[in-house]
Write a structure and sequence with these properties.
The structure holds two protein chains of two kinds. By secondary structure, chain A is an all-beta fold. Chain A is 0% helix and 55% strand. The N and C termini of chain A lie far apart (40 Å). Chain A is built from no helices and eleven strands. In chain A, the strands form two sheets. In chain A, strands 2, 4, 5, 9, 10 and 11 form a six-stranded mixed beta sheet that branches. In chain A, strands 1-3-8-7-6 form a five-stranded antiparallel beta sheet, with no helix packed on it. By secondary structure, chain B is mainly beta. Chain B is 0% helix and 53% strand. Chain B has strands at residues 5-7, 10-13, 19-24, 31-38, 42-50, 53-57, 64-68, 74-78, 87-94, 104-105, 109-113. In chain B, a hairpin with a 2-residue loop joins β5 and β6. Classes of the chains: A mainly beta, B mainly beta.
Chain lengths: 115, 114
């Protein structure tokens, strides 16, 4: 099946540093989504990208939908302690079946911040 | 709070047993999705329902089944449980389907099979 390669798997940074993570795929996706998951909770949607080349910001977060539609990146600027968690990319592939929606998730990037 | 409600939060049961996980989608959402999250495997898509009808299937085992009821809540039934079924099971919902209808996740049910 389709797979997303998310990197890095983990990051250990100092508070205040910028963070960058990305996802790549061998397949084309129509939508790229970025989620954050805190311990004991479900993934929370951070940013949704709908068009190739689209660059979208949400506060200190910025994400881009790659021109080839096969990749996306997420940047976090000036990290703070509450940014700790696992970040997932997710892609929505084309579907020939009306109404079908199967999001494919990356393996996650675990972010740890040293104060 | 995403608005998606899952019950129970935790479930501990023995191998061979059957359990039912319940999900209430956000108000107004017609699509419901089930995902399994194991320690080493990230989020794996199981099944999607839209307005009561099954729309997409992922790697869902034959021992697992789901349905979406007229009031749009959904249940995931897991039977003949095995140790490897221990995982977090997430429900998500979206307004409709398609690229412009992002998924919103509940807080999951943690299933432990002993």
């Amino acid at each position: 099946g389709q797979q997303l390669n998310q990197s890095p798997q983990s990051m250990f940074i100092q508070e205040g540093e910028d963070v960058s993570m990305n996802c790549t795929s061998s397949s084309i996706f129509n939508t790229w989504l970025w989620y954050k998951q805190d311990p004991g909770e479900g993934p929370v949607l951070l940013i949704a990208l709908y068009k190739a080349g689209e660059l979208t910001s949400n506060g200190r977060l910025t994400a881009q939908f790659g021109i080839t539609r096969k990749d996306s990146f997420l940047n976090i600027s000036a990290s703070i302690p509450s940014d700790v968690g696992i970040y997932f990319c997710a892609g929505q592939p084309n579907s020939l079946i009306q109404g079908a929606q199967k999001l494919v998730f990356g393996q996650g990037t675990r972010l740890t911040i040293n104060p | 709070d995403s608005g998606v409600t899952q019950t129970p939060k935790h479930l501990i049961t023995a191998t061979g047993q059957r359990v039912t996980l319940r999900c209430s989608p956000r108000s107004g959402d017609l699509s419901v999705y089930w995902y399994q999250q194991s320690l080493d495997q990230g989020l794996q898509f199981l099944i999607q329902y839209y307005n009561g009808e099954e729309r997409a299937k992922g790697n869902i085992l034959e021992r697992f089944s789901a349905q979406q009821f007229p009031d749009l809540h959904s249940e995931l039934n897991l039977s003949s449980l095995e140790l490897g079924d221990s995982a977090l099971y997430f429900c998500a919902s979206s307004v409709t389907w398609g690229s412009n209808s992002p998924l919103h996740f509940g807080n999951g049910t943690r299933l432990t099979v002993t």
